Amino acid sequence: MIAGRTPGVLVAVVALALAACSQENAPSDKIRNAADTVVDQVGGSSPVRLALGKYAPRDDCQDLPGAEDFRGQLAAAIKRRDTDALTALAAPDVKLDFGGGSGRAQLRALLESQDSDLWAELDQLMRLGCGVNKQGGLSIPWYVEEPFDNVDPASAMLVVGERVPMRSDPLAEAGEAEEVSWDIVTLVSGLEPDKPFQKVRTSDGTEGFIATDKLRSLLDYRLIASSRDGKWSFTSLVAGD
Predict the structure, then answer these.
(1) Strands 90-95 and 231-238, bridge-based pairing
(2) pLDDT single digits (tens) 16-60
(3) Where is the signal peptide (predicted)?
């Protein structure tokens, strides 16, 4: 066992590493290497980074009392698509949108609606790490509390993956302008969700095309949770602004 860490924390962190690698359809040796890297880092004081890149998933929540158990219950409910279990983990007044939508009943309706892709959104959230917010609660994705200076959230996208090709033309076989790993890019002409590639610009001004399924809006879903009287629950699950 790693000194200063419980087996439960180690298992949770390694599981997050495997989830991060699975997005890349990585071979088994890459998964093993990622797990080994996490094991090496867990004993230190720095946040655990699970992939390459400035905004790669990382776990800052290991030392929040009770947070590990809460995140385990959250992950299990999402994996099982268990509406009852997930609703029970929500605060009675959980915020669900910026138009006044709130409460467990509305959350249940969203989870059970055939027109909603909320379960898929939650699957993605659980792969994006955990951060500690200013109120002492937790935020998923971890970067929710990070300052994004000189970035317009409406047009900013996170590249979700390591060494994601940015191509010179919107074709899968087009030549690569460069590779981008877990970093922020800006949409050049707005999001066109029905297209397989989006034209983007990196922070150094390079323009090119990145696959749509490798981009995530900074305004996409985020989950905020806190402990009230010793009981953890998520108080906000929203997208947009």
Answers:
(1) parallel
(2) 444 444 444 443 344 334 434 433 333 334 455 557 899 999 999
(3) 1-26
- Bridge partner residues of 228 (DSSP): 231
pLDDT tens, 185-199? 999 988 999 999 999
Assigned architecture for domain 156-217: Roll (2.30)
Cα distances (Å, whole numbers) of residue 219 to 36, 215, 223: 33, 12, 12
Q: Please give the C-alpha separations between residue 195 and each of 45, 130, 164, 165, 231, in angstroms, as whole numbers.
A: 43, 30, 17, 16, 44
Per-domain residue ranges of the chain: 7-51, 67-146+222-238, 156-217
| Cα 77 → chain centroid | 17
Bridge partners of residue 216, in order along the sequence: 158
pTM: 0.77
CA dihedral over 43, 45, 51, 57, signed as positive or negative? positive
For range 67-72, the mean pLDDT: 96
CATH code of domain 67-146+222-238: 3.10.450
How does pLDDT run across 104-151, given as a tens digit for each residue? Answer: 999 999 999 999 999 999 999 999 999 999 999 999 999 998 888 888
CA angle 85/134/62 to nearest 5° reads: 55
Q: Looking at the chain, list the stretches that DSSP marks H as alpha helix, in order from N- to C-terminal side.
A: 7-22, 28-42, 67-80, 83-88, 104-112, 118-125
